[in-house]
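agent> step 3/5: call structure_predict on target 'Fe2OG dioxygenase domain-containing protein' (Acinetobacter venetianus).
agent> reason: downstream docking stage needs a structural representation; sequence fetched in step 2, passing through unchanged.
tool.input:
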Amino acid sequence: MQQTSFSLALNATSWNLDRVLDDLNEFGFAFIDHVYSPEYVTALADECISHLAEFRAAGIQNGVVSHIRSDHILWIDGQLPIAQQHIQTLHNLSQALNQAFYLGIKEVEAHFACYNAGEFYALHRDNPQQKNDRMISTVFYLHESWEDNLGGELRLQDKKGNWHIIQPLPNRLAIFQSDVLHEVLLSKQQRLSITAWLRSGNSIWNP
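tool.output (status=ok):
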């Protein structure tokens, strides 16, 4: 694995990229706290909340209801300029991952996600049996505050078969291989985030 470094916008001093790369290499997941300035996180949350009426139920596709998830989402496009700054950060991260793991990541797709009280996402993989080109999954938490008893945690299995609970703390970015088994536990209050996938059609990485 090749070690590298790069500049990340807004709060780069909180990023220890070498640790992130080491954790991804050894365990298949990593997380970063205090990713952005508080001002940016507030602006991003405001942008998300102002569009909540446009969110759709993620578990309904082509009229078919899925019973493994109950969250609501809004895909991020050019009409959401504040969120686009986060997408650019993920593009920068992709370059470092390409250098370290030869992933060949070419694009980022992302959506806002809202888990209202009682909503969840059951165990799944974002890239089951490597049937799509999602290589790295990320979740950035943008709600204002969170307590341990509110649920909504990301529960995932690492490359060694051990299970971990990642609290959805505000201004935290979780990063994990897209073939990792994971779930979002039932939330007891509204939980806001951006879920994004770093995609490549020709990766040679064998995690």
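agent> step 4/5: record observation. The chain has a mean pLDDT of 89.
agent> proceeding.
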